[in-house]
Structure of J domain-containing protein:
Amino acid sequence: MAEDNQDLLRYAQEYSEKDIDLYDLLGVDALTPKDDIHRAWRKRSLKYHPDKAGEAFDADKWELFERARDILSDPNARARYDASAKAKLLRKQEREAMDKERQRFADDLEARENAHRQQKAAKEQSDRDAMNKERERLAEAQRMRDEEKKRQESAAQEMEDLAEARRRLKEKKEEKARRKQAKETMKASAAAGRTPGAANGVVTVPGDYLVDLGEVKKHYWELVCDKLRAVQAARNAAKGQSSQEEVQKAEETVQAARKRIHEAELKFQKEAMAS
């Protein structure tokens, strides 16, 4: 079962370089004697045995268990394995020590660089603070100049607004006077144009009485609705910001609606008297 000594030495060297822990594989340590090595091998490798594993048999795993047993059972191979592992461990420790030294050097260099950067940043911050203070001083001076300018502009605007308000008030009074005069004129004209005894609403006319207006025919109730809408429009024009021309046009619309109603009442009255 055991391989010759040269092969064991070669495998011992190979496994140590590959970091294959033969002790851990068999569940033993460096102080375990040869007899216990065999017992540990039988216990650990039992499930890998061809008869036990069956179709799941792993030849490489089984071979590794056997070589671990043979190397750790052979004094020379075990010594080679331990020496190689120790040498590798020593090299690792040396590398770690060198890495620590390099890291210490790098940390020291980084610390000096950080200190230099902090000093530089502190100076830059100080310069920025001084520059910001100067900017704030200039900004404050500009703000005061702007506020004074706005105050002067506001005062001037208030004077202009006051003058504009007076002008609008004057125009409003004049417009009100013109509207009042126009209403009085239209009332006088309407009173002069009416036939005595036939004012709108005096003659009772059925709502469905049909009136021939030439191009169209409307019922009496439609003429009344037209007049009401015209009156409301005229009131809105008189109360709003409408021009004198718009107010005049609205009043003319009212008079036209009243005239149509008046003519319809006269016609109905004549027809009623004739019958």
